[in-house]
Amino acid sequence: MKVTVKFFALYRELVGLRETQADLPQGSTALDLWQFFTGSHPQLAPNLPHTRFAVNGQYTVPETPLKEGDEVVFIPPVSGGSDV
């Protein structure tokens, strides 16, 4: 099945892509997709505990099953702001 993957901020820099498609086996999860990309971009791997996942515009858990045509976003940790 084909899914669209979007990378934001730090992840875009690490992977060098804003958006791409991935072809995964049926029954794959958002976590499987993450692991697919860490295979070719191991610099992503340490960020898993701080990563949020969104499927079709909704925050979700990594174990969410994917289906053909889904859009998955890997959201990196956000920093900045003020301590005021």
Please tell me about this protein's structure.
It is a single chain. The chain has 84 residues and is α+β, with helices and mostly antiparallel strands. The protein has a single domain, classed as Beta-grasp domain (Ubiquitin-like (UB roll), Roll). The protein contains 2 helices and 5 strands. β3 (52-55) and β4 form a beta hairpin. It starts with a strand and ends in a 9-residue tail after the last strand. The mean pLDDT is 92.
Topology (elements, then pairings):
Layout: E1 2-7, H1 9-15, E2 19-23, H2 30-40, E3 52-55, E4 58-60, E5 71-75
Parallel strand pairs: 1-5
Antiparallel strand pairs: 1-2, 3-4, 3-5
Radius of gyration: 13 Å
Subunit organisation of the chains: single chain
CATH topology: Ubiquitin-like (UB roll)
Number of strands: 5
The CATH class name reads: Alpha Beta
Q: Tell me about the biggest sheet?
A: 5 strands, mixed
The CATH superfamily bears the name Beta-grasp domain
**If you average the pLDDT, what whole number results?**
92
**Main β-sheet, spatial strand arrangement:** 2-1-5-3-4
Q: Helical region count?
A: 2
- Kindly estimate the percentage of residues that lie in beta strands according to DSSP: 25-35%
Spatial gap, N to C terminus: 47 Å
Order of SSEs: EHEHEEE
Which overall shape is indicated by the principal axes computed on the Cα atoms?
globular
CATH architecture: Roll
- Helix share, percent: 10-25%
Q: List unreliable stretches of 5+ residues.
A: none
Quickly count the domains.
Answer: 1
